[in-house]
Amino acid sequence: MSADSLNLLTDLIAKARARGADAADAVLVNSASMSLAWRLGNMERLERAESGDLGLRVLIGKRQAMVSSSDRSAAALDELVDRAVAMARTVPEDPFCGLAEPEQLARDLPDLDSCDPHEPSAEELVEWVRTAEDAARAVPGVTNSEGAEAGWGRSNVAVAASNGFANAYSVSSCSYSVSVLAGGGEQGMERDYDYSGAVYASDLRDPEEVGRNAGHRAVRRLGARKMKTCTVPVVYDPRVARGLLSHLSGAISGSAIARGTSFLKDKLGKKVFSDLITVVDDPHRKRGLRSKPCDGEGLPNKRRNIIEKGELTTWLLDLRSARQLGMESTGHASRGTASPPSPSPTNLYFEPGQVTVQELIEDIAQGFYVTELFGMGVNGLTGDYSRGAAGFWIENGEIVYPVSEVTVAGNLKDMFLNMSAANDLVFRYGFDSPTVRIESMTVAGL
User: Fold this and answer.
1) Which strands sit side by side in the sheet containing 431-432, from one edge to the other?
2) Angle, in degrees to the nearest 10, between helices 74-90 and 2-18
3) What is the pLDDT of residue 356?
4) Is residue 377 very low, low, confident or very high in pLDDT (cuts 50, 70, 90)?
C-alpha cells in the first residue's frame, strides 16, 4: 500500500510539473477508525469509518496553492492538478514559501514502533468500557454514570515532493475513558473522569483501575466549598498541568514569533522558567502518541530541550517561519492534506523534578490544588492568564477539602518563572507533565 501511495503522489507531482509548476509536493492519508459509547451497562453507539484524503501543493515562483480531494479517480486527479496550477498562477506572492533543498532532507529515518498491527475488535472495546464503567459505578457514593467511550484509529501517511523526498509510515492509537457522577440531593452532585490512551492496546492501563479512579475522583469532590479571594501557591494536577505546555508551544511557534504576537517574542536565549524546569520535545520517542520519523517537509527532526534549566533555547520552526526570521528550520513542520506546513511540537513534556508530590506541597500553609480547568482565558500576546477552576484546598501541607467555582489568575511570564515540578511524570497524552507548583497566583472566589 505504501508503494502504491507513493507512486500515486509521484505521478501527481509529475503532472503538476508538466503543466507549469516549478515545484510541488503531495500528502496522502488513508485512515480507519472505530468508536464506541456505553452507558449504564448498554451500548449507545458503535461506529466504524474509513476515509482517504489527498492534498497537492503547487509552487510557481513565489506563489503557492494547495488543493485537496477524497476522489482518486483519474478524472478527479487531473482536475485537482489543473485547479492547483491555476490557483498558484493567481494568488499573491509569498516570499517565504518553498520546498526544502535536496541536501536538507532526512536520509536515515528511525523505526518508532508507532503502529500496533493488532486492530481491536468491537468486543474488545466493549470489554474495556464495560469493565471501566462497572468499576466506577461500584465505588461507594457514585450515583450515576455519564458513560464510557472507547476508540481506535490507524492512519497510513505518504508524503512526496519534487525535491526527491518520499516517505510513507503508519500510526495508530487507542483509548477509553469513563465519567461518573457522585452524590445527589442536598449534598449536590459532582462529576469526574479518568482516561487511558496509547499507541499499542497492550500499553493501556487496566480498565478496572481507570474506573475505580474515576469513581473515587468524583466522590472526593463532594461537599465542595467556595473560597474567598486570596493570593496563594497553586499546584496543578498532571492532567491540567499539561495545558501549560500548550500555552508554551503556542508562544514559541515560529508563526507567532514572525507575526510578533507572542508574549515570549523577545525571550530567545533568556530565562523564561525557573532553573528547576526543563521542557523536552522528542519526536523519536518509541510508541509516542505524537512521534514521527521526520517533519512534514521531509527535514530531519530530533530530541531537543526546548527549555534547558529555565532558558528558552529555540523557537519551533518550519521552513517558512525560519525564512521569515532569518533562521534555519528546527524540523517542526506539521501538515495535513488541506493546508501548507506549519510549526508544531511532537511529544512535549516537562522533565520530572526531584521531589515527591507530598514534598512539593508539604511547606504550603494555604494553597490550592487544581484538578480541573474551564474556559480559555489566556492572552497569547500579553501572557495574561485567567481560568475557571475546581480542585482541593491545601492547609499545612495537606489536602483538606474540595473547592469549586473559583478562578485562578496570573501572568504566564510570572507563572513560568515561579514553577517547580514533582517526580510523578507519566506519559499519557503526547503533551505530558508531572504535578507542578506555582509559587503565587490569585485564586478569585467570594
Assistant:
1) 311-312, 304-308, 279-281, 348-350, 431-432
2) 50
3) 98
4) confident
Cβ contact 83:90 at 8 Å = no
Q: In whole angstroms, what is the distance from residue 153 CA to residue 156 CA?
A: 10
Phi/psi of residue 212, each to 5°? -60, -40
CATH class of 2-218: alpha beta
- pLDDT of the residue at 250: 97
Residue identified by cell 513534556 is: 349
| Residue 375 pLDDT grade (very low, low, confident, very high; cuts 50, 70, 90) | confident
* Residues 152, 202: Cα–Cα separation, whole Å: 13
Rg (CA), the chain: 24
Share of the chain above pLDDT 90, in %: 97
Strands 366-378, 230-236: pairing is parallel
**Is 1 a residue whose pLDDT tops 80?**
no
Q: Which neighbouring-strand residues pair with 99?
A: none
> What does the alpha-carbon distance between residue 244 and residue 247 come to, in Å, rounded to a whole number?
5
> At a CB cut-off of 8 Å and minimum separation 6, what does 118 contact?
200, 201
CA distance 11 to 74: 11
∠ at Cα 143 (139, 149), nearest 5°? 80
Encoded amino acid at 103, one letter: E
Output 376-383 pairs: Cβ under 8 A, ≥24 positions apart: 378/247, 378/412, 379/263, 380/247, 380/250, 380/251, 380/256, 380/261, 380/262, 380/263, 381/261, 381/262, 381/263, 382/263, 382/411, 383/251, 383/263, 383/264, 383/411, 383/412, 383/413
Residue holding cell 490557483? Answer: 87
Residue showing cell 500576546: 381
Structural contact between residues 338 and 57, judged by C-beta atoms closer than 8 angstroms: no
Residue ranges of domains in the chain: 2-218, 224-446
Average pLDDT, rounded, for the chain: 96
pTM: 0.94
